[in-house]
Amino acid sequence: MRSLCFTTAVVGIVGVAALGCASTSAEEQRRALTYQQSSDEAAKKGQYEKAGDDQQNAQDAHHEAVNKAIKEGKPIPPQPQMGDRPPAQPTP
Predict the structure, then answer these.
(1) Angle (CA) 73 75 80, round 5°
(2) Tens of pLDDT along 68-88?
(3) pLDDT (tens digit, 9 = 90+) per residue, 22-54?
(4) pTM of the predicted model over 0.70
(5) 29: how many CB neighbours lie within 10 A of its CB?
């Protein structure tokens, strides 16, 4: 019973890790720009704690985008700046 629980936990962790790594550098950059936009809007409303959290998330997502771009052999995306907006979602 103990080994079954352990095996299930390991398979679950590996599955979640695989899903988390499935994004591309472009998708990570889109996340970074979305967080940047959210940070800008929160700051305009005086919600500075949320703005700071979103800014940190934007930096983290950009870091992931840079790492993935390097692995993919693509150009490094620019760091999101105040006022940057994410590109429009492509329609399927």
Answers:
(1) 135
(2) 999 999 999 988 888 888 877
(3) 689 999 999 999 999 999 999 999 999 999 999
(4) no
(5) 24
Sign, CA torsion 15/33/53/49: negative
Cα(49)–Cα(55) distance, integer angstroms: 10
- Tokens at 87, concatenated: 């590109």
Task: Return the biggest CA–CA distance within the chain.
Answer: 55
Angle of CA points 89, 62, 78, to nearest 5°: 85
Please tell me the predicted confidence (pLDDT) of residue 91: 47
CA 86 to chain centre: 12
Q: Which residues of 79-88 are buried (b: 16+ CB within 10 A; e: fewer)?
A: ebeeeeebee
